[in-house]
């Protein structure tokens, strides 16, 4: 007889990629009881040691200034840079695991696969008369048709079986397993022009998707290493590679991509994996053994290289996409308009912005490596980052289902940009924060968006999520009357730490930067005419958001990054709190390596002056501070 252990939570997140991880951590930090279910032995999804894709985002490999994503993802990547400068994938796995395993309020279930989803219809009648919460989770005032009741799951390493119940479920599985089983409205494939008015849409919609890729890593062994091609590997010639140049022999290649056409990426995933293995070993044979017509090795530099690692789990790009109350479209990613304040051309903005993207609309050729006579992808760059609305992150017909990752509500063309992992991660943080807020207020995701959007946005900004064109709002009672400093550079004045923005935007600086002061420490002071009671203080330092920050197989990409902690960050600093000329508290912080410093002041501190003194950086002589905020 099967025995299930029942587990009840506020929020159950299924899928432990970066979107699911950031979602679960964000929800737990907001006080929710959270389960994170992951069917692999490690976290990270496409960024884990099983697949080893670098984490792309709006900065487009560091080519768009000041666009890198912050929030929980930034915490993770700065932790990685500090503790893993040698770029070990297993160490990165452990950093991701640690982020979930030691988060208070979060229970992690690794090697646990969801086997069933129980959903039920919602009565089409309005909420009961006199209900104090007419938009409560599971009720139908918002027009939902179904709700998820529970999930069944089995932990493969222990053979334990679980029954999970929750107020809100988050599908971060990538393929949308949970939502599909629950009956969520979904699409697979490419839309027509007529459907969404997209300039690059098809004349007739189809069910084709982008494919999956399998990566490899090679190492220079310092001596000649032969390669014996397996009998089952494919064979490639120079003419096959005319559209797929070999740029790095040490790692590759995203364009070894199959599936999405005649082979469906979900249903035929095992066959696609086998075909990808044949392709990878065939490409490596081409690199190691192919010769020119004159009989010379085509890649003589590869003589001493040997395969160190070949993936066995393909990285998927596209499968199901769930429908929310808004479908992100190609024009939302690409269109710009003049900003009346800055005069710049800026990307699409929404009143319910909770995340942003900036990776190009990067459409891969259907069937990928089987279409060797075609370019492997087609990209359209954008002038500015674009906003992603909250309405893309919850199901339009399942009352307690939210989405995080590549299964959000987007067209095939918009998805070609929004699918990358950094964009998925910040969307995941937004979903986790919203889900916790919805549970606390007993609201459905849709009702939360209608009634609490400003509160949600301000919470995200406080947690260092950048929301384009959404400013931080100071509590007027806590706004300092004066900001003074030991020195300041022109354009980087001390009062800029009170700006509503915590990064450089276009040509506008929003930071304090002191002049270099020989023999003395730089300091900045916030002052109030009357004392204020502070419960929390937050400082945002400069981690150089124009620089790429990601694990990677590629030596070329790693060479574009700082080798360890960004030198722009402040390492040692002092916070002192003063009241009526007397110092009431002094906090010394050493070996900081994060952009965001936040401290809860246990019983609250009444102060009329707060001073930040910079004692040491990680290398720069010109440190910058973007924000000092009080709650």
Plain-language structure description:
The chain has 631 residues and is α+β, with helices and mostly antiparallel strands. It folds into three domains: 4-188 and 326-351 and 371-462, FAD/NAD(P)-binding domain, CATH 3.50.50; 212-316, no CATH class; 476-630, Jelly Rolls, CATH 2.60.120.260. The chain has twelve helices and 27 strands. The protein has helices spanning 18-29, 72-83, 89-101, 177-182, 193-196, 269-289, 330-334, 412-418, 421-441, 445-451, 453-462, 555-559, and strands at residues 4-14, 34-37, 106-109, 112-121, 146-155, 160-171, 186-187, 212-213, 216-220, 251-252, 257-258, 305-310, 315-316, 321-322, 336-338, 345-347, 353-357, 361-364, 377-380, 386-389, 401-403, 482-485, 522-541, 570-579, 582-589, 596-617, 625-630. The strands form eight sheets. Strands 1, 2, 3, 4, 5, 6 and 21 form a seven-stranded mixed sheet that branches. Strands 22, 23, 24, 25, 26 and 27 form a six-stranded antiparallel sheet that branches. A hairpin with a 4-residue loop joins strand 5 and strand 6. Helix 1 (18-29) runs parallel beside helix 9 and helix 2 (72-83) crosses helix 3. The longest helix is centred in the middle third of the chain and has 21 residues, at 269-289. Residues 125-135 have low confidence and may be disordered.
